[in-house]
């Protein structure tokens, strides 16, 4: 696949894909075609999809880079990768709980204004 095809498939820009490669987030740099353009594989596209989800879930770039480094090591890094993902999961759960708490306050204020608009307060 070309960089444009991968960009369309993943929703990322070509600039972001080049950034992922430049900063060590890819498992390996995508091979180049005879014309020098990047040629992405299905494996690359799947990896980029994972990176996209990790980033969307709030994982810092540094942690994503660490995860990629570990993945390049293969099977001997399973424990470390699992621990990294468990720590990220714990962070995500904490953020979800904070959002739930924040939502309660917003809901309270909406209810308060609804009652005031109806003249109940």
List keywords for this structure.
single chain; mainly alpha; 121 residues; 5 helices
Can you walk me through this structure?
The protein has 121 residues and is mostly helical. The N and C termini lie far apart (62 Å). It has helices spanning 3-10, 14-22, 42-56, 61-73, 78-117. The model has no long low-confidence stretch (mean pLDDT 95). The longest helix has 40 residues, at 78-117. The protein has a domain at 1-56: Multidrug-efflux Transporter Regulator, Chain: A, Domain 2, CATH 1.10.1660. It comes from Microbispora rosea. Keywords: DNA-binding. One of its GO terms (molecular function) is DNA binding. InterPro entries: DNA-bd_dom_put_sf, MerR-type_HTH_dom, MerR_fam. Residues 1-70 form the HTH merR-type domain.
Measured as a percent range, the helix fraction is over 70%
Per CATH, which architecture of the domain at 1-56?
Answer: Orthogonal Bundle
Shape: elongated
Describe the biggest sheet?
A: none
- For this structure, what is the CATH class of the domain at 1-56? Mainly Alpha
CATH topology of the domain at 1-56: Multidrug-efflux Transporter Regulator, Chain: A, Domain 2
What is the count of helical runs? Answer: 5
Query: What would you call the structural class?
Result: mainly alpha
Domain HTH merR-type: 1-70
Keywords: DNA-binding
Pfam family, one: MerR_1
Protein name: DNA-binding transcriptional regulator, MerR family
Compact overview of the structure:
The chain is mainly alpha-helical and 121 residues long.
Summarize the topology:
Blueprint: H1 3-10, H2 14-22, H3 42-56, H4 61-73, H5 78-117
Helix pairs in contact: 4-5
